[in-house]
Amino acid sequence: MEASKKSQVMLRAFSSRNFRLYYAGQAISLIGTSMTQVATSWLVYRLTDSPWLLGLVGFASQIPTLMLIPLGGIVADRSNRHRILTVAQILGMLQSLALTWLALSGTINVWQIALLGGLQGIINAFDIPTRQAFLPETVSKENLGNAIALYSSLVSVSVMLGPAIAGLLIAAIGSGACFLIDTISYIAVIFALLAMRLAPRKAVISTRKPLEELKASFNYAFGFLPIRSVLIGSALVCCVWGFYLALGPIFAKEILQGGPNNFGFLMTASSLGTLAGGIYLTKHSNVLESGKVLALGIGFMGISLIVFALSRVFWLSLLSLSAAGFGFILQIIAGRTLLQLLVSDRNRGQITGLYVMASTGAVPIGNLIAGALASKIGSSNTVILGASICIAGSIFFMQQISAFRDLVRLNLHTERA
Predict the structure, then answer these.
(1) What pLDDT, in 10s, does the model give residues 264-305?
(2) Which residues have C-beta within 8 Å of that of residue 235, sequence separation ≥ 6?
(3) Whether the model pTM is above 0.85
(4) DSSP letters spanning 72-84
C-alpha cells in the first residue's frame, strides 16, 4: 500500500493526457537524437582523427543555437507554441533525412556534417525554448516540478539507451543506420503533438521591439539572485560537460583502448547517473533547498570528472561517469524547476531562452575549448582543469545559499498573495 502511494506521488504528472502524449512522443524521438549525437562524433573522429576538428564540428553544430536562442524565446512568447514545435519537428526530420542519405550513399564528409549540424542548430534555437516553455501547458502547476523531473529522467533513459544501441549499430552496420532511426523517430513526436487537446492560450502582445524585450528579460534574470545562480551554474556545468562530450571518443579509443562499443558504454554510464538523479528528484522537490542542490550538484560532478580523467581502468571510468551524470542532472533539474515556478507565462519563453543559451549554448563553447586544450595539454588534463573550475564554482555558490533561500521564499509568497 505504501509502495503504491509512493508510486502515485512519483508519477502524478501522468494524470494529464497531454503530458502522457508529450512524454511518449519524446521517449521515442530522444533515443534517435542521442544515437545521432554518438554516431556523428564517432564518424567525425574516424574521418579526421583530429581532436581539434572533433571539437570544431561540435561547436559549428551548436553555435547557431547559442546565437539565435534569445530570438527563439521571444517568438515562443508571442506565437502559438504548439504550432512552432510541430513545424520544428518536421524541419528536424528533413535535416536528419539528408544526413541519412549522405551517410548511406557513402558520400558524406566533414563539411557536410558541420553544415547539417548548423542547420539543426538553427532549428533548435526555436524548438528548445519553445519546448521548455510549452511543458507547463501540458500539466497543472502543482505537478509541474514532478513533470520536469520525469521528463529529465526520460532524457536520461534515452541518452542511456541511445548510445548503447548506437555503439552496436556503428560497429555492425555504420553510422548511417543511426541517422535513419533518428529520422523515423521524429514521426512519433509529430503524431503526439497533433493528438493533444490544448486550452486556448493568448499570445503575448507587446509594443516593445525584440531587442528591448530581450534587454528587459536579461536585466530581470541577472538582477535576481536565484535566477542568476541558475543561469551561471548551468553554463558552468554544461560547458565542462561539453569537454567530456567532445573528448569522449578519445578517452574510449586512445586512453581506454576500446572502440565504438566502449564509447557507447561510457555515454550510457553517464546517462545512468542522470537517470538516478532524476528519479531521486521526483521524490525530493523542496524548492527552498534548490540553492543547495545546485551547489552540491556542481561540486559532485567536478570531483567525479577528475576521477574519470585519471582513470585507466574501464570499470572505474564507468562508475565515475555515472557519478558525474548524477551531479550534472541535480543542477539541471533543480534549475529548470526553479525557473518554471518563478517566472510568469508572459516572459517564460524569453527567460527559458536565456537559460537554454546559458546551458545548451555553453556546450559548443566547451567543445571548442576542449578541442583546443586537448591538442596542447592532453585530454585528461583538459577534463581535470574543467572539473576543478566546477569545484571552485560549487564553493562559491555554497556561500550564497542563505540569501538564495530567502529570495525564493519571498518570491513564491508574493506570487501566491
Answers:
(1) 788 778 878 877 887 777 666 566 667 788 888 899 999 999
(2) 358, 359, 361, 362
(3) no
(4) HHHHHHHS-HHHH
